[in-house]
From TrEMBL:
This is Vps54-like protein-domain-containing protein. GO terms for molecular function: syntaxin binding. Keywords: Coiled coil, Golgi apparatus, Protein transport, Transport. Gene3D superfamilies: 1.20.1280.130, 6.10.250.860. GO terms for cellular component: cytosol; GARP complex. It is found in: Golgi apparatus, trans-Golgi network. Its main location: Golgi. Belongs to the VPS54 family. One of its GO terms (biological process) is retrograde transport, endosome to Golgi. Pfam families: Vps54. InterPro entries: Vps54, Vps54_C. Residues 1-118 form the Vacuolar protein sorting-associated protein 54 C-terminal domain. It comes from the Eukaryota.
Length: 247
């Protein structure tokens, strides 16, 4: 449709300003509808989706990115059909481009927010884990199901983003996610109550698994060893005894 309008503007220049306004409205409508169905969760109602997933957000970002790429070319095509006096109307394209970029950035922030909520959940599970519990069989220092799930969710996000988004956007989002993970997990680890060497070793196995598996993500700077250092520096001590009941 946009191509048809551009051709119309080129062939019938008396309609150039009218065409310009119509093209602008098309781009505004697309941006508005995309925001409504994704950030406004309208797709849950209109398409019967159970939830808005990372894939939906990535696809929306990809669509916005395409328009962001095309807008300067559309602007230039229409500029050639305008008079010098009419060219001031093109400032609306600059506003639209700004809106699209802000919308795309908001989508990316939404992905980080989703993963932050998951990190908070996994961090609380980590804090609630009894790391000192005695094991009946041989000592097993494999990662906990909680950490395995966190890593799995992160690798799934990376796979989805790598499929639909450019490498630079992938790097930007994943670096924010991994940095946020490290901050939240460090805060939770500092609250963990460990009184045995075995418990410390089990926690260490978790963070080593986190670092090792997420270091294999393509095009993403691996996590540093700050979590491992934090666990290694944990001082083993006795759990405080609960207060005696008052008489």
């Amino acid at each position: 449709m946009v191509i048809d309008y551009i051709q119309c503007s080129a062939n019938i220049q008396i309609l150039a300003t009218d065409v310009l306004h119509r093209v602008i409205e098309i781009f505004k409508l697309f941006n508005s509808r995309t925001c409504q169905v994704i950030l406004g969760a309208g797709a849950i109602r209109s398409a019967g989706l159970k939830s808005i997933t990372a894939k939906h957000i990535a696809l929306a970002s990809q669509s916005l990115g395409l328009v962001i790429t095309l807008l300067p070319y559309v602007r230039e095509c229409l500029r050639q059909t305008l008079t010098t006096h009419q060219e001031k109307l093109l400032i609306e394209f600059d506003r639209i481009l700004k809106d699209y970029r802000e919308h795309q950035s908001e989508l990316h922030n939404n992905l980080v927010t989703i993963m932050a909520e998951r990190a908070q959940f996994h961090g609380k599970t980590m804090q609630a884990t009894d790391w000192d519990v005695k094991q009946a069989g041989p000592k097993d220092f494999s990662p906990t199901p909680n950490m395995e799930l966190l890593v799995k969710e992160t690798k799934t996000l990376h796979k989805v983003l790598g499929r639909y988004l450019s490498i630079d956007i992938l790097q930007s989002i994943m670096s924010q996610v991994l940095r946020m993970y490290s901050q939240k997990l460090m805060a939770q680890i500092q609250e963990v109550d460990i009184t045995t060497a075995q418990g410390k070793q089990r926690l260490l196995a978790d963070v080593q698994y986190f670092i090792e598996r997420l270091s294999t993500l393509d095009h993403v700077e691996p996590p540093n060893n700050s979590l491992e250092v934090l666990v290694n520096n944990i001082t083993i001590g006795a759990k405080p005894r609960p207060p005696l009941p008052s008489r």
